[in-house]
Write a structure and sequence with these properties.
The complex is a heterodimer. Chain A is mainly alpha-helical. In chain A, helix 3 crosses helix 16, helix 5 runs antiparallel to helix 6 and helix 6 crosses helix 14. Chain A starts with a helix and ends with a helix. In chain B, the strands form five sheets. In chain B, strands 2, 3, 4, 5, 6, 7, 8 and 9 form an eight-stranded mixed β-sheet that branches. Classes of the chains: A mainly alpha, B alpha+beta. At the A-B interface, helix 5 of A face helix 3 and helix 10 of B.
Amino acid sequence: MFQRLRSRLLIFLAVLGPGFITAVVDNDAGGIFTYSEAGARFGYNPLWTMLPVTVVLIVTQVMCSRMGAVTGKGLSDLIREEFGLRITFFVMAALLVVNLTNVTANFAGIAGSVEIFGVSRYISVPLGALVVWLLVVKGTYRSVEKIFLVASVFYVAYVISAIMVEPDWGEAIKSSVIPVVYFDGPYVAILIGLVGTSVAPWMQFYLQAAVVEKGVDVEQFAESRAEVIVGCVAMAFIKFFIIVCAAGAIWSVQPREIHDAADAAMALQPLGPYAYILFSAGLFNASLLAASILPLSTAYSVCEGLGFESGVNHRFEDAKVFYGLYTLLIVVGAGLVLWPGFPLVRMILLSQVLNGVLLPIILILILRLVNRRDLMGKYVNSKFDNLMAYGTVVVMIGLSLTLVALTLWTS
Amino acid sequence: MATVPIGVDHVLYLTEMTGMSVIAPNGLRLGRVRELALKPSEHPRRVSHFLIGRRTRFMVRYDQIESISLEGIRLSDDRFVPYYPDENLLLLEKDLLDQQIVDVNGRKVVRVNDLALRVVHAPAGDELWVAEVGVGLQGAFRRLAEGILPNKLIRRVQERIKPNSIPWQYCNIVEPDPQRRLRLRISHDRLGELHPADLADIIEDLAPAERGALFETLGDEVAAETLGEVDPKIQVSILKALDKERAADIVEEMEPDLAADVLDQLEEEKSREILQDMEQVPKAEVEELLEYESDTAGGMMNTQYVDVHEDGLVRDALEALRGNEDLLKALTHLFLIDREQRLTGAVAIGMLFAASEDTPLRKLAFKETLKVHVEDDREEVVELFDKYNLYALPVVDEEGELCGVITADDVISVLTPDD
């Protein structure tokens, strides 16, 4: 019995990677700011989204990693093979735009995190962009990945701070289970953003591709699924505490919007002088990690779907579109942040809302694929999977339309 | 790469065929083309059936066609049969469009964007033959604009885009189902002629099911060479998917050091299974090599060398070489040993040509016999190769007995970074 347990544990550790990394990157600049804004502006009210969103996230990620393990193909490849060039083209175009905003959000995170200490963004962003570009092109990404992951321990600061701020735990627990929805533009937007930042479309492409690259096959899948669940649940706790921190430290004093990184750092205020440095370090680390993964993953997804040669093991001449896209994403992403008067925080929040708007479309495609017996054999979705996923599609489309309606109404 | 020149008005694209009107002899429109099918068992290139209609699908055969042009298809005979799924048919849209195929000429895996078909004026009526597979921007543009822009406009615009297509005879469809492969007459003869390193690249680009399908069609020897060139993770995946007899047949044919590397990657149980099924001689060689750690000289070496007794003459060396013809392609040196199998010298093979048959080998040997110990680590080996500009380095054990040789390609593999 122990032998079996031991061998399962070994497989678990061997496949550790894709699911866990995806969950950690989930809390990138977009995540940190969205949760901070949610708590600072709306208090404990948005907390109820944590449970359903985490369930949806787990279901979606398990679906994608299962698809990767069973078919051995990436999501873009599957979309291309089953839905044809035209649909693939439009999906890739949308993904490119939305991912670009996410890349920008993370460079904004890099800028904001050191701006607290007076370092100009004109230094931090170009440097960050260069570092990211080199890391990948020079192929040292893998070794640095481990450093990033370890540095994610900074998130613990939110847990400590949440306890120290002595929030209204009763209120927090109540809000975690009782949904509160009011039809106010900014609130609907934050709801969409909360879903979008957790279940970001780009993450599903990244996860499936990572699972395929790792060569996880169907036998090892159970362990892979466990890794996904562990990662998602761990990060869900962090998200919970970020919102509680912001609610306790900012909203209970005076509800307001987050305008810059310093505002967001106030959520860690109970930690006194350490608040700024801890927040800054955490944000910097999360943004840099995401900035290293996002552009690369996007370039892969788009090239895969449209049939262009891709991969960092190719020379530039052999994979022009791939390298070109990758460089473009970094240059434009970083460049937008350096644009004078660029609204950093608004961009960051917008990027997550866009994630949430694109999500139902991607989910529909994923669902069409994962329910096909000729593709997945006996590994098609369970009724529960379909219920959660289709339910999310309906809710997200509903929220997006509501947001559009409210925006038009008020203007 | 030469493409057969096709007169512009004789080419029709699959994107143009879809939705094309089919007109009966009496002038009435029967419906629109939905799909084209080939029947490889009858003819490898001629479109044999046209599927028409949206809901109630029906088919017409190629011999019912009078003429085909951009304006539409005119039938000479309007009998039609209801469409039934037929395993012997290759459906161009469903089975080819957006799927991956192997370009044997370009030695890579590509995705089909569009198909170019040629109108052939046969005496009984027009026929449509598959000419090329479009894999580039031109095909992509046609697919995107189809149905949105009028066909004539698409034609005009696409002329400005450089075509990127592969002639049909160089295209290899990869079909995981062996029954279907048989029915569709999918053979991979041309693929088997590619260099194993190219085959390995192609195999690495395919998904597991397709990979297995391609691998299955390769002969044992080619499969063995290819497996040796494939990325380690994929090696494992391929071997796990084969049954142990086939796996053993292939591993047997591999060079022992490459076989040892592959078996090392597998789980012990699976590796033992395969070893058991192997023939004695290769099995012993591989087992010997498996004993060494992969980052030592023992782990890098192979047992494919030629040795001759130190008192021998050029004549004896030539005889030894003739007895080992399968090694000759890459052999650069042969080694001299004493009665106890201990290494006493090395002779460059080229030296044998200039000398007479009676020359003692000792005279042709290097002044200093460079060698390395079985337990020495990888870095030392690489340094030696670099310092002394070596092509081959013999490996000895504690007693000085010759047990293997490390060649330049092994060193290059070590130096090339994995991704």
